[in-house]
Amino acid sequence: MHDLTRCVHHPAVDTEGYASLAVATHRASTIVYPDAESFSQRKHRGFDGYTYGLHGTPTTRTLEAQLSELHGGVRTVLVPSGQAAVTVVMLSFLLPGDKVLIPDHVYPPVRSFCEEYLKPRGIDYGVYDPLIGAGIAELIDERTRLVWIESPGSGTMEVQDVPAIAGAAKAKGALVGCDNTWATPLLFKPLAHGADFACEALTKYVGGHSDLLLGSITVADIALRQTMKETLRGLGVGVSPDECALALRGIETMGIRVAHMGRVSEDFARRLARSPAIDHVLHPALPSCPGHEFWARDIKRSSGVFSIVLKPGAEANLDAALTALKIFAIGASWGGTRSLIAPMAVKADRTVKPWTHEGTVLRISIGLEDPDDLWADLDALLFALESKPTAKVA
Ligand SMILES: *Cc1c(COP(=O)(O)O)cnc(C)c1O
Predict the structure, then answer these.
(1) Of 2, 146, 152, 219, which has the highest C-beta tally within 10 A?
(2) Which residue range(s) make up the domain with 281?
(3) Helices (H), the chain
(4) Residue of 107, 184, 199 best suited for mutating to test ligand 1, as the one with most atoms within 8 Å of CB
């Protein structure tokens, strides 16, 4: 063997005795086969086999298996983002003439996808009141192939009656998908409550450090996995093992991160509810939150994201007050170690149940900073909002 060949042929080393606690990052496009026969038979390697890097490596399989176990499903599909987790389900199971139902509080890019991508291709969508419960049966016609759930809802936190909605959908032969990003599989398992697809933006709590984008779809029925496999192959969509390695690291600490963030978010929500600058606190753990009873029945604990509705008139000072924050960062895509705050435009995104609150909605994501520092920051924000605008209005 000459040196040029030595450069490209890595020597095989002994791995006997090498047992690490870390999951190795396996990168690959090409997968090689021991003989021509196995190459020609590669398409029979099944869901868990290896044929091409795009379709999985041992690193991605590890994360898939871990999420399947946490969700009580049989297989998990990994996709490049949480948004892709929603759209891949829709692209896989909706055909021209079909219809999907989405809740009014849905993650806004999902509504845009229905309007701008599905509709021009002959796939209709309907929007429903997130608190409709079993009443959704009336909206499910023979064209309705999929009912989408997001609980609690993006930004406004309405908790949905997942078993009632899923039960009504099932009775009419529709599939049910649930965006479970707020709860994570630690706080809620959609498959155990009647959903066919449990979707997560792993970008948030699983990643946990604001440095990766990934999504997952877990199913309990292997036939659904087969259909999505065909979609992903057709689209050429796969995920990077490096992102998966980060997610595998993040998931190890997700339990204590989410538990801590949930405790702090509940405590802050109760304290904020007493502030005169605040009109409403939208947190599933508060009895005033729409759907609180379903949170208490099905979810029971909290993660770290909730929203507050400011008193009308507080906007006058809001930009300056947000910019003056010392610990909270201003930004979207929550779930990391840093606490975030961001104003949200809600009104324009509601078509079924008009949003009647006049004040600005701020979404808060609790991170891992000392809660006293966070509270001092919020306190300063509230003080700034409370003092000047009322003087201005008067
Ligand atoms: C963030 C988020 C998404 C999208 O996740 P990305 O990875 O940012 O695409 C979808 N649904 C919910 C509820 C989210 O919070």
Answers:
(1) 152
(2) 254-386
(3) 3-8, 36-40, 58-71, 82-93, 108-113, 162-171, 184-187, 222-235, 241-272, 292-294, 315-323, 371-393
(4) 107
Domain with 298 in it: what CATH number?
Answer: 3.90.1150.10
**Tokens coding 351:** 């078509």
Round to whole Å and give the CA distance between 328 and 342.
10
Regarding the beta carbon of 179 and ligand 1, being less than 6 Å apart is answered yes
Same domain, 134 and 235: yes
In the chain, what percentage of residues exceed pLDDT 70? Answer: 98
83 lines ligand 1 (CB under 6 A): yes
Query: If you search the block for the tokens 């979207």, which residue do you land on?
Result: 332
Averaged pLDDT score across all residues of the chain? 95
Has residue 18 been placed in a domain? no
The residue with tokens 């016609």 is 141
CATH number of the domain that residue 168 is part of: 3.40.640.10
Q: CA-CA distance, 34 to 37, in Å (whole number)? A: 8
Q: What is the pLDDT of residue 389?
A: 46
Find the angle CA(302)-CA(162)-CA(218) to the nearest 5 degrees: 80
Query: Is any ligand 1 atom within 6 A of the Cβ of residue 156?
Result: no
For residue 203 and ligand 1, the question of a CB distance below 6 A is answered with: yes
Q: Cα of 82 to ligand 1 centre, how many Å?
A: 4
Whole-model pTM?
A: 0.96
Can you tell me which atom of ligand 1 is nearest the CA of 214? 7
> What is the pLDDT at residue 30?
96
Whether 22 is in a domain gets the answer no
Alpha-carbon distance of 306 to 269, in angstroms, equals 8
Q: How far is the CA of 4 from the centre of ligand 1 (A)?
A: 47
Q: How far apart are CA 58 and CA 23, in angstroms?
A: 9
